[in-house]
Design a protein that fits this description.
Belongs to the peptidase U62 family. The chain is of the alpha+beta class and about 450 residues long. Helices cover about 25% and strands about 35% of the residues.
Length: about 450
Amino acid sequence: MTTPSLDLELDLLKDAVSMALDYANKLGTTAAEVAISKQQGLSVSTRLKEVETVEFNKDGALGITLFRDGCKGSSSTSDLSPEAIKLAVKAADDIARFTSSDPNNGLAEAELMATEFPDLELYHPQDISAEQLTELAARSEEAALNVDSRITNSDGASANAHTGLKVYGNSHGFLNGFSSSRYSLSCVVIGESDGNMQRDYDYTISRNFNELLSAEEVGQKASEKTLGRLDSRKIATTELPVLLAPDIATGLMGHLVSAISGSSLYRKSSFLLDSIDTQIFPDWFSIEEQPHLKGALASAIYDSEGVATQDRSIIKDGVLSTYLLTSYSARKLGLKNTGHAGGIYNWTLSHTGQTFDELVKQMGTGVIVTEVMGQGVNAVTGDYSRGAAGFYVENGVILYPVEEFTIAGNLKDMFQNIVAVSSDRDLRSSIRTGGILLSDMKIAGN
């Protein structure tokens, strides 16, 4: 729900977009699109309950892209006065006159534009001060430091409150704007045992401030995760089942996002070229995209080109159902725009019914991976090799933490070798999944 002052600001931004589009039309351009974003935020970081930084930001800009017979020009301005907008439009047009023509340039098709704009409850204003954010961060640290004497230090806590406005319009006649909010709290602590030091963290994030986890819960979880890593051991080189913690499982699915994105496909830099209607996961596995979940972190009525978003199956019965295409990549590939300019929208993975703890028991002997590091992923071949840390499990029981090992495989095989997905999903990102159990991976250790 918007406030009168916010409605007024949205109207002013829409007027600026309309003005830019009118200028572009008078210049005789083929088409134009204009976007304005304005953000305002407050961030506070503490260390050992003392304030380290307080940052307030308020910024925004208008960006315009013009098309002239296949040629494209773009410019931006943070000054929204009529004269500055006119100069920005002229600059974009001057650039378009000197760029090479590309038949794939242009707006998304008019018939794909969103026409209905239900409230997705993305905006939850909260009157919050730097002092209140400081208190939150300090409370999380205090709770963390009180968990156990082995928690010897804090690496800091951070509390953030951000709101934003976005308006988009184009020469199809599309013009719409919306407001959003995002709040977060994180805490990082250091533990020590017999000279061995470890660090870990926890965080909470939501569009609604009142739905954040308590500062005490964030701090306590950060300490519990750190304590779990103390006295880590090395592991011998072997091949074992691997259970990815939910936040690591999210990263695994992020490689799928990249592989089926239009830009990777037309550049032929994806290991999933020509894979539509191909079985790439087990037949029980599915991914549903749900752009219209109320209050979710990755919800949107339309993408950054004004194309209406819609519920769709990304993976159905293990089969790849769609690529992720913008207007440009769709034309480049001779396919239909899927409304993914700007990213993905609330991917929800199917699960096999077990909790994460039940998957630990099901795994028997294997490794839980709670951290990965390094950039050892080849997008073209799918080869995967990353440093990792986690826990060694035997007979379904966690025995001890392990570190400084590498997990390796190929993403195609890893996708096919998914045995189970836990039902306790992590909802803190655009990919909503529980832990993922893989039948086996190569583990390089001592």
